[in-house]
Amino acid sequence: MSEAARSLLQRWGASFRKGTDFDSWGQLVEAIDEYQILARHLQKEAQSQHNNSEFTEDQKKTIAKIATCLELRSAALQSTQSQDEFKLEDLKKLEPILKNILTYNKEFPFDVQPVPLRKILAPGEEEHLEFEEDDEEGGAGAGSPNSFPARVPGTLLPRLPSEPGMTLLTITIEKIGLKDAGQCIDPYITVSVKDLNGIDLTPVQDTPVALRKEDTYIHFNVDIEIQKHIERLTKG
Length: 236
What we know:
Blueprint: H1 3-25, H2 28-47, H3 57-78, H4 88-92, H5 95-99, E1 170-177, E2 190-191, E3 205-206, E4 212-214, E5 217-225
Antiparallel strand pairs: 1-5, 2-3, 4-5
Domain C2 Aida-type: 157-236
Keywords: Developmental protein
GO biological process, one term: determination of ventral identity
């Protein structure tokens, strides 16, 4: 095992235990934060190119499935429906798999599929994108250069429950101005909250693809709910 892989697995393991500890203690907001941040890191690794990764393709598939389970547990904590939810005891079964990912060769214990990530494009790659044709007639915005088709729905999360004495933050993005707005393809905005070291403090959220473009403006009209109370954010 390389030093880079060892360090990565240690960080993942610490984050996994931190999330399940919060979950066990009933600190659901903190557990959701930790699960979603770790899921994002695992998905990023699973999507990485072979020559830039410490893991084989089969190992990355398992990593991606663990990320899916983290997302499922996070969703269960935010849901009022208890039926068919992904339970904490189920999630804990994955800790030894993640810890021993380099030697794990058994069937994954849950029937889940990796959650696809939005493709990360290299500079200039946009012009090579291939689009699926819409077979439905009269689709919204069809043929209009000033509207965008409905594509990726985004990863916006719901507003956190209110707590006495705690402050929630909502960021509203109405529109942004760009000199070359007309050249943008499926534009979206990623919102993240980081500490001074660049570490994510809350889950990273992507807006849906913009509603339309108008002159030098791209219109979004969305609210982003920051997934941690202001008082719980690290100062600085």
